[in-house]
């Protein structure tokens, strides 16, 4: 069985939380794109964890976790992430973690260039997490990056980094006027943070292919959501990788394998970090109340997230491009304070009512059409069965199923592992 767990919205849907819960039924959990711009929060009996690079299955001793070739890996960050988990008693050995030999290394100068460019853009900035993700993916497609497998050949690596820095310093020093970065310092960084991972480096194509043939169940964990996808999202305010389920087998190293099913994680309201059009955004008191109720501050950056009501138009597009078979509706408990729940049901563009999610040119001028649905206005965080939920909550779920054209199989009513209702 090959399952993808993906985000339907702008990210921060609670994917980490759902992967942590559902990974019980899987042998392998695999991250297939992105880097440490992700911030997956997991709360379980072992504590509260924020995972940036590691797959969320790392918190289960029996799961094998894979970081696929589609990822960009800051090995210094990974070192610290692993140290923090080990301090909390989590075992991480080459048995638990396999890192693709083809995954790209995100270097300190990628982070630097991310910051230099955001600073140059000033009030036109993209709202980057400043963790080097766009620069490293750009270099990947320029074919000027290092991969995890390069760490196995230190002498060749020394030559490669010399050539790369000669080229990279043209931008760092000549374009941005920043002090040039020496190849020696980068080589030292690679040796310090890379060498300890040598035993983890794996050909994930061979590993996952054999695992699948042996009947192992594989869970692919996405980062961010459909609306942040490089092709289908709100470009250019997107991430630099594909967040889409159909990319999962490619980014994991097994493009020849087909997904058995896709679980779309969809949030009961909307949130969005950073810049770009966010049509359903709620401002003022309404926005502040929702942000506080949902504790909407970025896990990776601490930045306050923009919030809005459930966006039917954007979420239906997200459900479509993800090819979701079922949905997991998260954070329904957050709406419990509302007597009336605001829902963005359509966009108005140049006076015309629209229910398709447009590209950025039209999205920039779209206005939300809001309706409201009756709230349940009581605590639902202790509900564990469908029958425990109040009628208004069931109606809200039914509305989402109908408007998305996809069944809601899970309803999450709290951040803890067990705070989830299986609907069928
Ligand atoms: P991810 O990046 O998609 O994994 O999502 P984040 O971890 O950035 O954001 C989700 C946040 O909501 C985390 O703090 C979770 O602990 C929390 N969370 C997830 N599901 C629920 C839920 O159903 N109810 C509540 N109250 N919190 C939730």
Description:
With 424 residues, the chain is of the alpha/beta class. It has three domains: 2-100 and 203-263, Adenylosuccinate Synthetase, subunit A, domain 1 (Adenylosuccinate Synthetase, Chain A, domain 1, 3-Layer(aba) Sandwich); 104-196, Adenylosuccinate Synthetase, subunit A, domain 2; 265-422, Alpha-Beta Complex (Adenylosuccinate Synthetase, Chain A, domain 3). The longest helix has 22 residues, at 154-175. Helix content is 31%, strand content 21%. Helix 3 packs across helix 4 (133-141). It has twelve helices and 20 strands. Bound molecules: guanosine-5'-diphosphate. Guanosine-5'-diphosphate (GDP) is lined by residues 7, 11-17, 39-41, 43, 299, 330-331, 333-334, 412-415.
Summarize the structure.
With 424 residues, the protein is α/β, with parallel strands linked by helices. The chain contains twelve helices and 20 strands. It folds into three domains: 2-100 and 203-263, 3-Layer(aba) Sandwich (Adenylosuccinate Synthetase, Chain A, domain 1), CATH 3.40.440.10; 104-196, Adenylosuccinate Synthetase, subunit A, domain 2 (Orthogonal Bundle), CATH 1.10.300; 265-422, Alpha-Beta Complex (Adenylosuccinate Synthetase, Chain A, domain 3).
